[in-house]
Every structure is written in structure tokens, then in C-alpha cells.
TrEMBL record, chain A:
One of its GO terms (cellular component) is periplasmic space. Transmembrane segments: none annotated. Residues 27-103 form the 2Fe-2S ferredoxin-type domain. This is 2Fe-2S ferredoxin-type domain-containing protein. Signal peptide: none annotated. Pfam families: Fer2, Fer2_2. PROSITE patterns: 2FE2S_FER_1 (PS00197), 2FE2S_FER_2 (PS51085). Keywords: 2Fe-2S, Iron, Iron-sulfur, Metal-binding, Oxidoreductase. InterPro entries: 2Fe-2S-bd (IPR002888), 2Fe-2S-bd_dom_sf (IPR036884), 2Fe-2S_ferredoxin-like_sf (IPR036010), 2Fe-2S_ferredoxin-type (IPR001041), 2Fe2S_fd_BS (IPR006058), Aldehyde_Oxdr_Iron-Sulfur (IPR052914), Beta-grasp_dom_sf (IPR012675).
UniProtKB/TrEMBL annotation, chain B:
Residues 78-88 have a biased composition (Basic and acidic residues). Residues 20-136 form the Aldehyde oxidase/xanthine dehydrogenase a/b hammerhead domain. One of its GO terms (molecular function) is oxidoreductase activity. The keyword Oxidoreductase applies. Gene3D superfamilies: Aldehyde oxidase/xanthine dehydrogenase, a/b hammerhead, Aldehyde oxidase/xanthine dehydrogenase, molybdopterin binding domain. This is Aldehyde oxidase/xanthine dehydrogenase a/b hammerhead domain-containing protein. InterPro entries: Ald_Oxase/Xan_DH_a/b, Ald_Oxase/Xan_DH_a/b_sf, Ald_Oxase/xanthine_DH-like, AldOxase/xan_DH_MoCoBD1, AldOxase/xan_DH_MoCoBD2, AldOxase/xan_DH_Mopterin-bd_sf. It comes from Hymenobacter crusticola. Residues 71-92 are annotated as: Disordered. Keywords: Molybdenum, Oxidoreductase.
Length: 197, 747
């Protein structure tokens, strides 16, 4: 269980599921994450976030506050963004859950992942998985014509994704490193790219 | 000629792992059998523990141990972090929580609950009851109420707490134009999004491995080796990916030692990941401050007297006096100075460095005061600053190694359009919004610490760089790979940099904007040593084209050593090594090279500068302040990577805006409770409400530092709050001298 620094810096650490405990009070929970089923034995009070990180071993989803204030734990449930710290794992059986690991890999990046690298939409990287998951869903919301607090014409079906709109819609995701400009530019780049297609 | 790597806006080398969730932060290592620790906080500020009610906790399913001072193993005292030590311990305090029945602050960890799962540990922790004997005297919680007990500390960092030159009070009284005001700043918390966390396990009785989210690996190792009476080399500390730090992770807060202790007791790996609330109670923040700045000038605006005195707080369990007065020692010329810092000690969690400690709050006071003086003189605030440019450092009396504050203002004023500004307050409005513009100087020292670097060159044309420094998002991993690539004439893809592990060569903590120069200098020296070794190997052979070469005739280029004046004449490293039958070659070096450094250090004043410009909109009816524009220009030497340096500036300005407008840690002065200990009530900046911040750097190399560089991680915090306060004055005619500038203060 000792990891060399070479391994750590290459990202060469295996995903390890926590072995189920022999405790009769636990309930079976099946979660479908990134297209793969995981059969877990959980206490019903385990949050989706802890189930992902501590039981399934998918640590890409981060814990920043555990109370819905930072967005680091954002994942996609049926394509919509959810703060996984605020919801119980057991409520999400039978749903499609996508985490940062399901969006892309180091060798096959999602366009937003590539854009975050190009525009330096991060520094420490800790809020980043949440930012990217949130942005993926946010762009869908825009495509769908959902209004935000700063949308001036609530009846318009076509949202103009100004900087102000991006900033407003991404404000559930805190970046203490203050990489907001890079985040806005990353999202804009991918939005323009998608619109062009 | 191939292009240099240094200066290129290279993407971060760790970027792909970060954006795909493959970068493992401390709490994320899949260590078998890991148990979870949760801490119980004190709910009084000062007193003794009478009894613990731990039965319910112990009986909670899954609980492995409940530790209190009655059953916790004894640890050895550790020395408090002392900046004058060559290799200081990372301990923020000398207090050993859980080895004492004494309570020294509200929030002090008193009990550790260890259980199979996090939920079990949290539930059990919630069931612990503690009975206290509160101290007879009232806890000391208000810095201002304790003013009468304030004292002049022996040192402020490594400098004198007082500087007097001439007679500042007399000169002030005699000055035709003067201002004299008090500025206050509240406590702040760093709040990196990755909480402080530690994962520890033991092998046998004397081998300890600790994954810790730290920006000071060797300080943690030192503290733990003292605490558990271990040989330093028997403690391994790993801190590879760090989710933000901003100073807070420069100290090993009590949970670090407690995690190691808990792992020992339960005989299994244990991790403690501090809940956000504990981040306010168990991790120290920025001290509150009260500062007096009095400036006296002649009619031309030349400063005749500069007074900067005031008060900060440390705790009863530490001694750190935050150096708010340092900026005033170096920024403007004046024949008369009176600088003095005092300290009070409170029953609160020990305070610590927070991004731009000292200068962050010191520039708020000094640069607000300069703006007030400019108005008193009816002079442009930039002009006032230019008239007080010193020829030499005004209190050290040595030249600056590099100083381009004037150029910062010139470029900033042009980018911002400063000269179109009507200086009259309340001169612009749009509907209910009053619009104002402000400026301030930025200032931060360009210090160095120590680091060792090892470099290994392989026959396949790759290089491995190793140093136990840190990457908290600062860009170190990327820029030092660029640096080594240039030193060795390789392309950056051929360089791997290993950092973040105490098994690697020693490096000092990554704080105080020192890492770029320090590690950069060590990389330079190690590479030089390597190149000299290579040349020595080549020179031996008459058949080598380098046979007659001198080191100074050559340059590293295209994977080898070539003559400067004949770019095709030379040898690749592969040829040199192959001839010797060697697979690779290593070199190691320490920075600073001692003697040379000492002399340079005394001969110059090493500082970074900058000019901040902003525009604010203040809503006349609600008092809401929005920052609508920002231009910052910084003078911190050569920029190693435009992309990562720019992010450092942007992040710093953002933190400066938070400091000016939204952030404040409230202390309940009755019992030391922190009523806003969460990210929903402690407002850090979010994307909304921030402008498109523009930052520029001059990029003028410092002739006296490695690569001509300075650190760039903190300068842009400084002056930010003052620029905003100055803009708010310009917008509204109201001078706010008390941060943060919340609506209530403007109504
Ligand atoms: S961890 Fe879920 S919102 Fe912060
Ligand atoms: S990148 Fe560090 S918190 Fe966003």
C-alpha cells in the first residue's frame, strides 16, 4: 500500500472499492456510475459523495464543504448537475450517474477538460472536477433555453451566453484559487465550438 | 536556435490529471483498512476539562477508539515554528492538545473518535459530552479590549519590531499638509477548497508514513519526529497534489499529530479530513489589526514624516506578530520614520500566514493613507507616489536589486485610462450607481529560502529533476521543468520533475513567494554541476570535439553541449555518456550557495512592486459595492510562464477583492465562537460579481536573482483592498477605514 512519488505524479494509483463490511444493518445499494454498476453495502445515511469517494473509490469528485456551499462535489445525475454531498446514495439507484472520470481520460479529454487546460481554468485543481461537471450541465441548460437570474428576456428561447450569464450560472462552484477568468473563457470556447457545429 | 522554454505560456504539466479527476489529493489514497477520525471541539475559550462523557460514543457501532487526554498516549512537546531557525518545525504552537486538560481556545480539539466509517465516527463524535471548569478570569477575545496589555514583541518575523529615523512625530507636527488615521482589518480565513487533511499509518513502532495536505513537507516531518521521538528519516511525508493552501498549510495544525497518534492507537491507517467548520476553529487565519498611519508632507507632496504603528493579535499558544509594517520600511522615501508593532495575545486559535501576510493588511492602511494625503494635497495620487520614489531603500539604506514601480504606474495608467479621471469625489453616476476609480501601490518582498535539487540525465535524452518542494496550484511543477529544460538544452517534454515527498532532496516550505527563486536557483546550480561533469568526461578524450573546450565557451542546446560561437560543433549527452559506458549521470546542489548569498542579501533590498487600478460601482440606496474594472501591473522580474503567473495574479486580485468587500471571520467576543464558520456564511469570491480582471507584468529581470525572477504568488493581493477603498471614496466621498467595506458602512 505504499505508493512511490513517481506513481503518484503519473496518476498511476488504482481505484480500489472498499470491501463490504459484514454488518446486517447495511442495505444493498446498486449505483450505475459512468456506465458501470457498483453493488455496495451502505448505511442509508451515506451521501452520494461519500459513496463515490470512500466506497467506490472514485475520488475525482471532491469534498469541499459537505453542505452544498462550494460545488466541488458536483456530478451529473441523468445529465443534470447535483451537489453529491447533499443527497443520499440510496436515492440514486437505477439512475445514470456521471462523474469527472466518466467525462474523459488523460488520453481522451472531454472538450471542456481540454479547454480548462488551455485557458488555465484552474490552479490547484481541487474545484476543477466540480467546475467541469457543472459546466457540462450548464451548457445543456443553456441549449434548452433555461433562464438564469441575469437573463433579461425570460420569454426568449435562445439564451445569449454572455460572460455575465456564465458567471451567474457557475456561481455555485467556488474556486478559492480564483481561476474564474480561465473558467469563463474555457466555457465560452467550448460553447462557441459547439455552436459552430 | 530553438526557442527557450522559460517564458513560454506552457500548459500545466499536471493539467491532464487534474481535469480528469486522476490527481490524488491526500485523503484519496486507497490505503487498505483505513479508519476515519473525527474531532470534537471545545465549546469554551479558556478553562479546564473536568470530565468526559464518552460512553455513548464508545458504544456506537463501528467505533474503534475514543481518545481524550485521559487515555491518549503522551507525545513530546514540539517547538513552535520559528522563522529564524534554519529548518523550522511546522508546528503552529507548543501546546499538545489531548495531552493536557487545559483549554486554550474555543474549537481546540479535545477528543478524537476513530471508527470504521466516516458516518459512524461523525455520529459517535456528536454524542460526546464534556464538562468544563471555565477559567475564573474572562477569556481574552477582543484585540481592542486588550490594548492596555499590548506589548512590543522581541521580533517581527526576523526583523526589529521598531524602526525610528529622525523624529517623525515632530516632523509630522511641523508638516504643512498631513493626515493621521486609524485603519482596521478583521480576522480572515484561507479556506482552501481542499480542507486540511492527513492520512497516517505506522509500520512497526518507528516507521511513520503521513500523507498530508501541506506546503511544508520537511516542517511536518520535523514536527512529527519531535512529537513521536522518531528519527527524521523514519518519517515519510507525502504531499503531491495540494488543493490550495494560501499559507494555512504552512503549519501542521493539531489534527496532523492526532492522526498519527490515532493510527498508532488503533494499529491501522487513519485519516482525518477536517470538516469545513473545523477549518475555522482548528486552522489559524489572518490576525485582526488596528493600524495608525500618519503622513506629513511639504507643499510639493514630499513626505517629511511617516508613522505606521499598530496592533495585531496572536494567541496564548503562539507568538506570531504579523508584520504589517514591513511595507512602510521599503516603499517611500522620507527623512523621518516611526514604525512600531505591538502584539496582544488572545484565547483564540493560533494565527498564521495568509496569502501576502503583513503586506496584505499593511498596504491597506498605508495605501489608503497615501490616497487621503493626495486629496489633502489636491494632487494626483500617482503623482504623489512618484514624488516619493526613494533612491535607495529608505530604512535599509542599500540599493534595490530591482525596482520599477514608476513603470508599473505608467503602464497601468495607460491601460486603465487613468488620466481621463475627474478626481472630484461623487463626480460620476449612472442611475443609482455612483462610480469611482482608485489606485494603490502593490508591494511584496522577494525573499529566498533553501532547497536542494537533484538532477539525473539519462542516455535516452531525458532528465529527472527531484526536490521535495510543493505544487499547490502555484505552477512550480511546470515552471521548474521549463527551467531545467533550458539549463540542459532539452525540450520540456523530456524533463520529469518529482516533488512532494520527503524521500526527495530537502526543500523549505513553499510560502512567502520564495519557491520560484529558491528552487529555480537550485535547479540552475545542479544543472551547472551536471554540465561541468559532462564536460570533464569529454575533455579526457582527444577524439572529442570538446577536448579543448572551456565551460564558458559552451552552451547546452539540442541535447548536448555546443560551442557558443559554432552552433554545429559539439557533442550530444548521449555521445558523451556512451563513450564512458554510462547510462546516466547525476548532480545535486543546494541553494543558496551560502557565502555569496549572504553578501548579496546584505548588499541589496529585494522587493517586488506593482500598481493596482480599479473602478467600483456603489449603489446609493443599498450600499452594495461592485468592482467593475481591474488593471494590475506587477514588477516581479522574469516571468517563467505567462500562463501560470497570470493565474497567480488573477487569483491574488480575486482574493484581494474578497478581503476588501466580503470576507470576515466573526468572533463572538463572549465565548470565542465563530458564528460564520462555513462557506455559506464566510463569503469568498465567486464568479458572479467579479469583473474581467486585467493583469500585466513588466517582465524586467532582476539582475541579482536566479533567472532574474521573483515569486509571483502574493504581490497582487497587496494594495488591492486599498485600491478599492480609494475607489469607493472617489465614488461616494466616504472614506472607509475598516475592512470589509460592507453596505452598512456606506449607508
Ligand atoms: S462539497 Fe458539496 S457543495 Fe461543497
Ligand atoms: S483551482 Fe483551486 S480551488 Fe479552483
Amino acid at each position: 500500500m505504499s505508493f512511490s512519488i513517481d506513481q503518484i505524479l503519473r496518476g498511476d494509483i488504482p481505484r480500489v472499492e472498499r470491501p463490504p463490511a459484514a454488518d446486517p444493518s447495511l442495505v444493498p445499494v446498486r449505483l450505475r456510475v459512468n456506465g458501470q454498476d457498483h453493488d455496495l453495502q451502505l448505511e442509508p445515511r451515506v451521501s452520494l459523495l461519500d459513496a463515490l469517494r470512500e466506497f467506490i473509490g472514485l475520488t475525482g469528485t471532491k469534498k469541499g464543504c459537505n453542505q452544498g456551499a462550494c460545488g466541488a462535489c458536483t456530478v451529473l445525475v441523468e445529465g443534470e448537475r447535483v451537489n453529491s454531498c447533499l443527497t443520499f446514495a440510496i436515492m440514486h439507484q437505477g439512475k445514470d450517474i456521471t462523474t469527472i472520470e466518466g467525462l474523459g481520460t488523460p488520453d481522451a479529454l472531454h472538450p471542456l477538460q481540454a479547454a480548462f487546460i488551455e485557458h488555465d481554468g484552474y490552479q490547484c485543481g481541487y474545484c476543477t472536477p466540480g467546475q467541469i461537471c457543472s459546466a457540462v450541465a450548464m451548457l445543456k441548460e443553456v441549449e434548452h433555453g433555461d433562464a438564469s437570474h441575469v437573463t433579461s428576456d425570460l420569454m426568449a428561447t435562445d439564451v445569449q451566453l454572455t460572460d455575465e450569464e456564465i458567471r451567474e450560472r457557475m456561481s455555485g462552484n467556488v474556486c478559492r484559487c480564483g481561476a474564474y477568468l480561465g473558467i469563463v473563457d474555457s466555457i465560452r470556447a467550448v460553447y462557441e465550438q459547439q455552436k459552430g457545429q | 536556435m530553438r526557442t527557450k522554454e522559460v517564458g513560454r505560456p506552457l500548459d500545466r504539466v499536471d493539467g491532464r490529471l487534474k481535469v480528469t479527476g486522476q490527481a490524488r489529493y491526500t485523503a484519496e489514497f486507497p490505503v487498505e483498512q483505513v479508519a476515519y477520525g473525527v474531532l470534537v471541539r471545545s465549546t469554551i475559550a479558556r478553562g479546564r476539562i473536568l470530565a468526559y462523557g464518552t460512553k455513548a460514543a464508545e458504544q456506537t457501532p463501528g467505533v474503534l477508539a475514543v481518545l481524550t487526554h485521559e487515555n491518549a498516549p503522551k507525545r513530546h512537546p514540539t517547538k513552535e515554528f520559528d522563522p529564524s531557525d534554519k529548518e523550522p518545525s511546522a508546528s503552529p504552537t507548543t501546546i499538545l492538545v489531548l495531552n493536557t486538560d487545559e483549554v486554550s481556545w474555543h474549537g481546540q480539539p479535545l477528543v478524537v473518535v476513530i471508527a470504521e466509517t466516516l458516518d459512524q465516527a461523525e455520529e459517535a463524535a456528536s454524542l460526546v459530552r464534556i464538562t468544563y471548569a471555565p477559567a475564573e478570569e474572562l477569556a481574552k477575545l477582543s484585540m481592542l479590549d486588550q490594548k492596555t496589555e499590548a506589548f512590543v514583541p522581541k521580533k517581527v518575523l526576523n526583523e526589529k519590531p521598531e524602526v525610528t529615523q529622525g523624529n517623525a512625530e515632530e516632523a509630522l507636527a511641523a508638516a504643512p499638509v498631513k493626515i493621521d488615521h486609524t485603519y482596521t482589518t478583521p480576522p480572515y480565513n484561507h479556506n482552501p477548497i481542499e480542507a486540511h487533511n492527513t492520512l497516517a499509518y505506522w509500520e512497526g513502532d518507528d516507521q511513520l508514513t503521513v500523507y498530508d495536505s501541506t506546503q511544508y513537507i520537511f516542517g511536518v516531518r520535523k514536527m512529527l519526529s519531535e512529537m513521536f521521538a522518531l528519527k527524521e528519516e523514519n518519517v515519510r511525508v507525502v504531499s503531491a497534489f495540494v488543493g490550495g493552501a494560501f499559507g494555512s498549510k504552512g503549519r501542521a495544525w493539531p489534527h496532523v499529530g492526532l492522526t498519527a497518534m490515532a493510527a498508532k492507537v488503533v494499529g491501522r491507517p487513519v485519516k482525518i479530513d477536517l470538516p469545513r467548520k473545523d477549518m475555522f476553529y482548528m486552522v489559524g487565519g489572518r490576525t485582526p489589526s488596528e493600524q495608525r498611519v500618519a503622513l506629513g508632507a511639504d507643499a510639493e507632496g514630499k513626505l517629511q514624516a511617516v508613522v505606521h504603528t499598530g496592533l495585531t493579535a496572536s494567541s496564548t499558544s503562539n507568538t506570531f506578530a504579523e508584520h504589517f509594517s514591513f511595507v512602510t520600511r521599503h516603499l517611500y522615501a522620507s527623512p523621518n520614520f516611526l514604525i512600531q508593532q505591538k502584539l496582544v495575545r488572545l484565547d483564540m486559535v493560533p494565527n498564521t500566514f495568509m496569502r501576502a501576510p503583513g503586506e496584505g493588511i499593511g498596504t491597506f492602511a498605508l495605501e489608503s493613507a497615501m490616497d487621503e494625503l493626495a486629496y489633502a494635497l489636491n494632487m494626483d495620487p500617482i503623482e504623489l507616489r512618484l514624488r516619493n520614489e526613494p533612491e535607495k531603500d529608505p530604512t535599509m539604506h542599500v540599493p534595490f536589486s530591482s525596482r520599477h514601480l514608476k513603470e508599473c504606474f505608467a503602464l497601468g495608467a495607460e491601460k486603465f485610462g487613468w488620466h481621463q479621471r475627474n478626481p472630484q469625489p461623487r463626480g460620476r453616476r449612472e442611475g443609482p450607481w455612483l462610480i469611482g476609480q482608485g489606485t494603490a501601490s502593490a508591494f511584496y518582498p522577494a525573499n529566498k529560502r533553501s532547497a536542494e535539487v537533484k538532477v539525473k540525465l539519462s542516455i535516452d535524452g531525458t532528465a529527472l529533476l527531484q526536490s521535495a518542494t510543493h505544487e499547490m496550484g502555484t505552477g512550480t511543477a511546470t515552471v521548474q521543468a521549463q527551467n531545467a529544460a533550458d539549463q540542459l538544452g532539452l525540450s520540456v517534454e523530456k524533463v520529469r520533475f518529482e516533488y512532494g515527498d520527503s524521500l526527495l532532496p530537502k526543500a523549505n516550505g513553499s510560502y512567502g513567494s520564495t519557491t520560484t527563486i529558491t528552487v529555480g536557483g537550485a535547479v540552475e546550480l545542479a544543472c551547472e554541476d551536471l554540465k561541468r561533469q559532462l564536460l570533464r568526461l569529454a575533455v579526457k578524450h582527444p577524439s572529442s570535439v570538446l577536448h579543448e573546450a572551456n565551460y564558458d565557451d559552451l552552451e547546452a542546446r539540442d541535447n548536448g553541449l555546443f560551442y557558443k560561437d559554432n552552433p554545429t560543433r559539439g557533442e550530444t549527452y548521449a555521445v558523451i555518456l556512451a563513450r564512458e559506458g554510462k547510462e546516466n549521470l547525476e548532480a545535486q546542489a543546494s541553494f543558496p550557495p551560502f557565502l555569496k548569498e549572504k553578501l548579496e542579501e546584505m548588499a541589496y533590498s529585494f522587493q517586488s512592486f506593482g500598481a493596482q487600478f480599479c473602478e467600483v460601482r456603489v449603489h446609493e440606496e443599498t450600499g452594495e459595492v461592485l468592482v467593475s474594472r481591474w488593471v494590475g501591473v506587477y514588477d516581479c522580474g522574469t516571468i517563467l510562464n505567462d500562463k501560470t503567473a497570470r493565474s497567480q495574479f488573477l487569483g491574488s486580485v480575486t482574493m484581494g477583492i474578497g478581503m476588501a468587500l466580503w470576507e470576515e471571520t466573526h468572533w463572538d467576543l463572549r465565548d470565542g465562537r465563530i458564528p460564520n464558520a462555513s462557506l455559506s456564511e464566510y463569503h469568498v469570491p465567486v464568479a458572479a460579481g467579479l469583473p474581467r480582471i486585467e493583469v500585466y507584468s513588466l517582465g524586467i529581470p532582476d539582475p541579482h536573482t536566479p533567472l532574474g525572477a521573483h515569486g509571483a504568488g502574493e504581490i497582487a493581493v497587496t494594495g488591492a483592498a486599498a485600491a478599492i477603498a480609494n475607489a469607493v471614496y472617489h465614488a461616494t466621498g466616504k472614506r472607509i477605514r475598516d475592512l470589509p467595506i460592507t453596505p452598512d458602512k456606506l449607508l
